[in-house]
Amino acid sequence: MEVVIVKDAKAGGELIADGIADLLRRKPDALLGVATGSTPLPIYDALIAQVSAGSVDASRARIAQLDEYVGLPSGHPESYRSTVLRQVVEPLGLSPEAFMGPDGSAEDVLAACEAYDRALSEAGGVDLQILGIGTDGHIGFNEPCSSLASRTRIKTLTEQTRVDNARFFDNDIEQVPHHVITQGIGTILEARHLVLLATGEGKAEAVAQTVEGPVAALVPASALQLHPHATVVVDEAAASKLKLADYFRHTFANKPAWQGI
């Protein structure tokens, strides 16, 4: 696993955006897996800036969603579909046809999960998947003790997650859905390159368990240790509990191996 320690979130976002730009130069129609939330925003901002400056052409890129609320209409402003369209697809100048995601408003949610897993495979698979991490080590909505072989499926949100997400729903927890569709850990591991960004001291323990702890369902992100090309980008605060921090600084020195996807 590559662990790259950067100064701050902005530097991490720029580094990952450089890697995405490099991928797009080699494979213009790459399928990029995107996550929502505040953590990946510096990545999207930096990539959008590169596209606006003309340093990379993203016009043929495709975007795949990591997860989606169940029960919200696709046009709801806080659906993850709307969020990805607003934060990534539209600013990059892509058409809605370049975007794919699970149907959280489907009558048959289980069939929608299976259909999305199948669609990712039929699209050739995700070339680079952006991930965040929860303080408990979850990725996507794969909470602790999720199966490391899990596929795209419906999950029940914990009460704490609904409390945390209430800020996006006028601080009204009653508006926050109880369920989501999420790519499973097994699905996530099929991407050719996994790139996890973590910032802040609050993520330090989860990062340490992910990188240096045992592979365990209790820390879902630890499954990244099983992947042949996983890159973890962390700021100094998120790296503060890594026993091998000095080794990572010396080995990778802000230059992850983006090649070989």
From TrEMBL:
What gene is behind this protein? nagB
Q: Which UniProt keywords apply?
A: Allosteric enzyme, Carbohydrate metabolism, Hydrolase
Task: Summarize the protein's role.
Answer: Catalyzes the reversible isomerization-deamination of glucosamine 6-phosphate (GlcN6P) to form fructose 6-phosphate (Fru6P) and ammonium ion.
Keyword Hydrolase (UniProt): yes
Which EC number(s) does UniProt give?
Answer: 3.5.99.6
Q: Which residue ranges does the record assign to the Glucosamine/galactosamine-6-phosphate isomerase domain?
A: 10-226
Regulation of activity: Allosterically activated by N-acetylglucosamine 6-phosphate (GlcNAc6P).
Positions of the catalytic residues: D67 (proton acceptor), D136 (for ring-opening step), H138 (proton acceptor), E143 (for ring-opening step)
Gene3D superfamilies attached here? 3.40.50.1360
| Native species | Streptomyces venezuelae (strain ATCC 10712 / CBS 650.69 / DSM 40230 / JCM 4526 / NBRC 13096 / PD 04745)
Catalytic activity reported = alpha-D-glucosamine 6-phosphate + H2O = beta-D-fructose 6-phosphate + NH4(+)
What GO molecular function annotations does the UniProt record carry, in alphabetical order? glucosamine-6-phosphate deaminase activity; identical protein binding
InterPro entries per the UniProt record, alphabetical: Glc/Gal-6P_isomerase, Glucosamine6P_isomerase, Glucosamine6P_isomerase_CS, NagB/RpiA_transferase-like
Q: What class of enzyme is it?
A: hydrolase
Name the record gives this protein: Glucosamine-6-phosphate deaminase
Query: GO CC terms on record?
Result: cytoplasm
Give the pathway: Amino-sugar metabolism; N-acetylneuraminate degradation; D-fructose 6-phosphate from N-acetylneuraminate: step 5/5
Question: What's this protein's family per the entry?
Answer: Belongs to the glucosamine/galactosamine-6-phosphate isomerase family. NagB subfamily.
Where is the site labelled Part of the allosteric site?
S146, R153, K155, T156
Highest taxon of source: Bacteria
Q: What CDD domains does this protein's entry cite?
A: GlcN6P_deaminase
